[in-house]
């Protein structure tokens, strides 16, 4: 077995590979950029090598630096993780010439299947169903419009070397096809250094289901079930699960066997994934093959018991698979939520900065956390804003969902925005729980964007109860001196008013032998808790149900988060509540005449000048953040008074770009 391997990646996947390497007794080498000098993967590895500046194009994408780092440290093999150089055939070829083992498939498989255009041609030749489309290179926007019209709208414009949702656009008409070609091409160049794009028919109401395959150098290939990846936003997966709630055994077997046949055709070895689009009648069409480890591989590991990273390392070392297809049994259900540093309330814009407080849920037989950060880490503008992958397991799908909802409640992150409330809201929905999902789920369920988690009656009860207990405990703390109560301090049982979401709830609190009872509108709720004033999370049980409520003290009350909902809550005496109701509400300043930068990023282009008349929906400028182009449009007809930025400017969030008359 290898004695030392280098991980040519960063973040959670680098940490994930290090974890398995340690288990196998293999030493690890981490590479890092300027920004990642104190990153978790650097701390976990046995050795570290600096490879350049923060931009990936100056560090993680420079093959020469990666290879030199392997030579300098004596690493016998390189694990590429996902992204960066993981599907770069030239890099794989270079390693072969240098005598360094690539922990992944051979050059042929990467070259054929890593190119979306060539892979579709190859799949069609191999008899695999493919989506109707045009695999020729698109020359320009006019050509894109011509091809799109021939295929029939809607169409998908995709970067040939793309992945991770970058370089992809859906077009429903000629105008969108022209715009989509330009944006997809620009993203393809900045992310992959390859401007080729192609166009195919966009199948509406599809499911995205993929098959995990594993092969060795002896011609053996097996499949390890499927993953349902239909919950996506901008073509990036958000929540994945295994198995799929949609497939029957016959379809699963058919898809698996077809994936194995395709893999054998390219002499595939290592872990790989064959992605399919599946329609409502369970017809499936080849989408692409990812010749690397997928982000969502943990859900497969939990239901099969197979460590995919370990298998990749063993296959790369030249070992024969000890697993056969008959050995693969799917047991239970696993689910993964991608926790990102982004603001769902602002169109999921990246939220970069320092993670001031970080406490993930405790890992167990039901909860797994794959992360690349720790308290004090920085989420940088140079890389994907992932904080962690939260994975849960249960005997059934309902159990896996239950554990996920509970684990999300127990996640504590401060210092930047995150998408936990959005993830919880999806998991709480009846439609998701029924399994009736497609890749259009988010667009259909959140047509106007995410405006905050739902606030059902059960969530209100928990929040009001927790707020009352928290407030009473704080009052008791403030009134105590050397463990003695001040006789003039408020006592348990007094009347209180809890104001939540504009509603006022009359409450009382009584101490009991087990804890306390909160009475809301005459209805008692028994509470036990270990919370103490100042604690950021309220752990306890309300009416026998375990809860975890995030607590943030505000000047005029509390900000509580539970079950995907976040609310500002005040707890007052009846008289205080009466007086507060008479106070005028302070309104925020009117910024409707300004276009503000919605995220930290760089201005790619500005299409207007002072004095221009613009129409609602007109493109005003393009801002790039996290290698994704964001088109900013006029919300209404207006006249441009002043343009405060220009192409190339790096802007902070809410910085003024344009002022209107």
TrEMBL record:
UniProt keyword Transport, yes or no: no
The record's section on Pfam families has:
Biotin_carb_C, Biotin_carb_N, Biotin_lipoyl, CPSase_L_D2, PCC_BT
Q: Which reaction does it catalyse?
A: propanoyl-CoA + hydrogencarbonate + ATP = (S)-methylmalonyl-CoA + ADP + phosphate + H(+)
Its required cofactor(s), as named, are: biotin
Domain named Lipoyl-binding: residues: 582-661
Q: At the top level of its lineage, which domain of life is listed? A: Bacteria
Q: What keywords appear on the UniProt entry?
A: ATP-binding, Biotin, Ligase, Lipid degradation, Lipid metabolism, Magnesium, Manganese, Metal-binding, Nucleotide-binding, Transit peptide
- What are its E.C. numbers? 6.4.1.3
Choose any GO biological process term that the UniProt entry carries and state it.
lipid catabolic process
Q: Which Gene3D superfamilies match?
A: 2.40.50.100, 3.30.700.30, ATP-grasp fold, B domain (3.30.470.20)
Signal peptide span:
none
What positions belong to coiled-coil segments? none
Stored PROSITE patterns = ATP_GRASP, BC, BIOTIN, BIOTINYL_LIPOYL, CPSASE_1, CPSASE_2
**What is its pathway?**
Metabolic intermediate metabolism; propanoyl-CoA degradation; succinyl-CoA from propanoyl-CoA: step 1/3
In what residue span(s) does the ATP-grasp domain sit?
120-317
Residue stretches making up the Biotin carboxylation domain = 1-447
Q: Which GO terms describe its molecular function?
A: ATP binding; metal ion binding; propionyl-CoA carboxylase activity
Which NCBIfam families did the record assign? Answer: PRK08591.1
- The name under which this protein is listed is propionyl-CoA carboxylase
The species this protein was found in? Paremcibacter congregatus
């Amino acid at each position: 077995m290898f004695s030392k391997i280098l991980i040519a990646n960063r973040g959670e996947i680098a940490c994930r590979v290090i974890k398995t390497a340690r288990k196998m007794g293999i030493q690890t080498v981490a590479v890092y950029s300027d920004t990642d000098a104190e990153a978790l993967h650097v701390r976990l590895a046995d050795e570290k090598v600096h490879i350049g500046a923060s931009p990936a194009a100056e560090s993680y994408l420079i093959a020469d630096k990666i290879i030199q780092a392997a030579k300098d440290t004596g690493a016998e093999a390189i694990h590429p993780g996902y992204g960066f150089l993981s599907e770069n055939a030239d890099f794989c070829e270079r390693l072969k010439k240098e005598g360094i083992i690539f922990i992944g498939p051979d050059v042929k498989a990467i070259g054929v299947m890593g190119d979306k255009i060539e892979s579709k041609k190859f799949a069609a030749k191999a008899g695999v169903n493919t989506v109707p489309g045009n695999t020729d290179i698109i020359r320009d926007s006019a050509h894109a419009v011509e091809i799109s019209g021939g295929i029939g709208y809607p169409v998908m414009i995709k970067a040939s070397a793309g992945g991770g949702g970058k370089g992809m656009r859906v077009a429903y008409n000629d105008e969108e096809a022209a715009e989509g070609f330009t944006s997809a091409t620009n993203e393809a160049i900045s992310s992959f250094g390859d401007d080729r794009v192609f166009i195919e028919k966009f199948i509406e109401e599809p499911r995205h289901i993929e098959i995990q395959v594993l092969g060795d150098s002896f011609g053996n290939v097996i499949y390890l079930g499927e993953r349902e990846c239909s919950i996506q936003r901008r073509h990036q997966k958000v929540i994945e699960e295994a198995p799929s709630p949609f497939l029957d055994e016959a379809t699963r077997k058919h898809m698996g066997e077809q994936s194995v046949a395709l893999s054998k055709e390219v002499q595939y070895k290592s872990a790989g994934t064959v992605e399919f689009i599946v329609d409502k009648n369970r017809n499936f069409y080849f989408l692409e093959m990812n010749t690397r480890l997928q982000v969502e591989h943990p859900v497969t590991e939990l239901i099969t018991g197979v460590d995919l990273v370990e298998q990749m390392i063993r296959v790369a070392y030249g070992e024969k698979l000890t697993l056969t297809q008959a050995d693969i049994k799917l047991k239970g259900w696993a689910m993964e939520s991608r926790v990102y540093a982004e603001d769902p309330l602002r169109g999921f814009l990246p939220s970069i900065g320092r993670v001031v407080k970080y406490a993930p849920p405790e890992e167990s037989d039901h909860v797994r956390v794959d992360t690349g950060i720790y308290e004090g880490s920085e989420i940088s503008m140079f890389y994907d804003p992932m904080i962690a992958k939260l994975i849960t397991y249960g005997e059934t799908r309902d159990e896996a969902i239950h554990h996920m909802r509970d684990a999300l409640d127990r996640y504590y992150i401060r210092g930047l925005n995150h998408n936990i409330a959005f993830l919880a809201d999806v998991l709480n929905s009846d439609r998701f729980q029924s399994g009736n999902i497609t890749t259009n789920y988010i667009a259909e369920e959140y047509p106007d964007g995410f405006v905050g988690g739902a606030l059902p009656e059960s969530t209100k009860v928990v929040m009001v109860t927790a707020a009352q207990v928290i407030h009473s405990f704080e009052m008791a703390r403030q009134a105590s001196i050397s463990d003695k109560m001040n006789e003039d301090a408020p006592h348990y049982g007094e009347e209180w008013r809890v104001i939540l979401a504009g509603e006022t709830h009359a409450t009382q609190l009584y101490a009991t032998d087990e804890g306390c009872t909160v009475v809301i509108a005459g209805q008692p709720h028994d509470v036990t808790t270990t919370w103490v004033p100042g604690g950021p999370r309220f752990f306890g049980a309300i009416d026998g149900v375990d809860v975890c409520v995030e607590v943030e003290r505000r000047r005029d009350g509390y900000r509580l988060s539970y079950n995907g909902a976040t609310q500002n809550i005040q707890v007052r005496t009846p008289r205080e509540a009466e007086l507060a109701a008479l106070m005028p509400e302070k309104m925020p300043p009117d910024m409707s005449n300004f276009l503000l930068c919605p995220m930290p990023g760089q201005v790619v282009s500005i299409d207007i000048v002072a004095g221009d008349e613009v129409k609602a929906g007109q493109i005003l400028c393009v801002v790039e953040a996290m290698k994704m182009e964001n088109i900013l449009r006029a919300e209404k007809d207006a006249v441009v008074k002043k343009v405060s930025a220009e192409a190339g400017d790096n802007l902070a969030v809410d910085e003024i770009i344009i002022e209107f008359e």
